[in-house]
């Protein structure tokens, strides 16, 4: 007869022996399942990829939200700075600037109409209309681009 391992008591009868065998089978089955799960590299890699994807998606959402907040802050600061600058300019300078801008627009418009081909003028007008119609989207995109550029500079520096 064989000796029981690690001082385990021997079974008193056949029924107890069957129970011990069944318990050992269950433990062995759980151990085999755990080893098989560890050996399944593809499944583990897919699980890890799913976790990383969820983390990246969450982080991207956070960054998008932060960029929107920063874009709003930058827009407000730019508007404040423009108002402050406008308040500081003397009236004659403002008038002269307005006249110069009007003259420049008139000359540029005339040159554009005289020199640019008709299809180019049409496409440009269409692009300008789209930009006007989507002004807030363009400002938000510019804000996000600015934040990405600043973040890149911060990492390098």
List keywords for this structure.
mainly alpha, 157 residues
Structure, explained:
The chain has helices at residues 14-39, 41-88, 91-115, 118-133, 135-156. By secondary structure, the protein is an all-alpha fold. Helix 2 (41-88) crosses helix 5. The longest helix has 48 residues, at 41-88. It is elongated. The relative contact order is 0.06. The mean pLDDT is 85.
What topology emerges from the helices and strands here?
Elements: H1 14-39, H2 41-88, H3 91-115, H4 118-133, H5 135-156
Secondary-structure-based class equals mainly alpha
- Output the radius of gyration: 37 Å
Number of strands: 0
**Global mean pLDDT:** 85
Low-confidence parts: none
Beta-strand residue fraction: under 5%
Helix content: over 70%
Can you tell me the overall shape?
elongated
SSE series: HHHHH
Total helices: the number is 5
Major sheet characteristics: none
**Span between termini:** 76 Å
Summed up:
This protein has 157 residues and is mainly α. It has helices at 14-39, 41-88, 91-115, 118-133, 135-156. The chain contains five helices and no strands.
């Amino acid at each position: 007869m064989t000796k029981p391992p690690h001082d385990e008591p021997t079974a008193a009868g056949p029924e107890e022996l069957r129970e011990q065998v069944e318990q050992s089978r269950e433990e062995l089955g759980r151990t085999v399942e755990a080893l098989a799960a560890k050996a399944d590299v593809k499944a583990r890699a897919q699980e890890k990829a799913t976790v990383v994807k969820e983390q990246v998606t969450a982080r991207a959402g956070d960054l998008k939200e932060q960029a929107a907040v920063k874009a709003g802050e930058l827009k407000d600061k730019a508007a404040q700075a423009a108002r402050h600058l406008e308040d500081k300019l003397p009236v004659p300078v403002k008038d002269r600037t307005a006249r110069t801008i009007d003259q420049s627009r008139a000359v540029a418009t005339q040159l554009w109409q005289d020199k640019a081909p008709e299809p180019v003028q049409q496409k440009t007008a269409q692009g300008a209309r789209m930009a006007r119609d989507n002004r807030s989207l363009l400002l938000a995109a510019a804000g996000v681009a600015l934040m990405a550029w600043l973040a890149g500079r911060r990492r390098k520096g």
